[in-house]
């Protein structure tokens, strides 16, 4: 609203000259404040726009945006304009209330983006905490490793029981030969310390930071290499950072049929709804194939056999 109003600044000024009854026109100071506030709110507008889409943004994207907001708020507090500094001080107090409770969790979630891993945490934390950065980075890292050990212990329990039962069966056939082999291995040299999945994952090079990268698909295809991390990514990346997608799925607002469209054949209406979904996907840069689009069917409740417009498109 502010951005639109600022465009009509000259209109308000001319109105004050032509209409003697118009006494409450904004002063130059108020126009200047409006421009400053509008400029600052652009950050929130763009970030809200990204997280308000219905494309299910993952929690790994949240850390970067929240850090950007915190850094900007801390810079705005030092503004010479008292309106901006006072407004930002109140916003920063509210922000810190939530930041202290979630920064570790969203920091751990950002590690499970192979384009960032620990590098993103090491980049933003020093900008935010200064001298306390090393402690905060270690805190995020320790929580990640503790969570990994917890998942690893839960996943290894069933495998240990299977291994023990298998060893009981093979012991009857192989006798003491494998026991002798174990003693031979122990006597020939020290065993190399085995690195964990998390160590190997963090030591690998970062992937290119491309906008089209699909984090969930990457973890789906790398499950054999990082089975424990895949389970962690499944749970951490499933944390919703926006309620818009779920609200869009369950709300009935905006789906009312106008009197004109209610006269159309149900198959035609369904075709229009599917076409709308495909067109929006094309505009958003997504592939609009029938296999990827799941559109609502108007006649689902009626269970009519030959009513699917999707099969006729």
Automatic annotation (TrEMBL):
What GO terms are given for molecular function? DNA binding; protein dimerization activity
- Write down the InterPro entries for this protein, in alphabetical order: hAT-like_transposase_RNase-H, HATC_C_dom, RNaseH-like_sf
Domain of life assignment: Eukaryota
Give the protein name, as stated in the record: Zinc finger BED domain-containing protein RICESLEEPER 2-like
Q: Which lineage ranks, top first, belong to the organism behind this chain?
A: Eukaryota, Viridiplantae, Streptophyta, Embryophyta, Tracheophyta
């Amino acid at each position: 609203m502010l951005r639109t109003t600022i465009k009509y600044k000259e209109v308000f000024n001319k109105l004050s000259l032509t209409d003697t009854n118009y006494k409450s026109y904004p002063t130059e100071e108020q126009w200047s404040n409006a421009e400053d506030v509008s400029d600052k709110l652009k950050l929130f507008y763009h970030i809200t726009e990204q997280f308000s889409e219905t494309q299910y943004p993952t929690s790994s994207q949240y850390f970067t945006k929240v850090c950007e907001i915190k850094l900007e708020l801390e810079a705005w507090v030092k503004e010479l304009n008292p309106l901006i500094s006072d407004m930002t001080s109140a916003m920063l107090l509210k922000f810190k209330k939530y930041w202290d409770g979630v920064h570790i969790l969203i920091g751990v979630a950002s590690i499970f983006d192979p384009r960032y891993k620990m590098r993103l945490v090491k980049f933003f934390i020093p900008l935010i905490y200064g001298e306390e950065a090393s402690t905060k980075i270690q805190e995020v890292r320790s929580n990640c490793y503790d969570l990994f050990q917890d998942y690893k212990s839960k996943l290894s329990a069933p495998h240990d029981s299977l291994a023990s039962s298998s060893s009981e069966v093979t012991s009857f056939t192989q006798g003491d030969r494998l026991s002798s082999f174990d003693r031979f291995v122990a006597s020939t040299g020290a065993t190399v310390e085995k690195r964990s999945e998390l160590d190997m994952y963090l030591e690998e090079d970062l992937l290119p930071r491309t906008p089209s990268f699909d984090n969930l698909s990457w973890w789906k295809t790398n499950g054999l290499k990082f089975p424990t991390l895949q389970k962690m990514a499944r749970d951490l990346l499933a944390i919703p950072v926006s309620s818009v997608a779920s609200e869009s799925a369950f709300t009935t607002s905006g789906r009312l049929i106008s009197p004109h469209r209610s006269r159309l054949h149900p198959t035609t209406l369904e075709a229009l709804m599917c076409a709308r979904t495909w067109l929006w996907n094309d505009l958003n840069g997504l592939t609009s194939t029938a296999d990827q689009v799941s559109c609502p069917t108007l006649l689902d409740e009626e269970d009519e056999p030959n009513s699917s417009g999707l099969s006729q498109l």
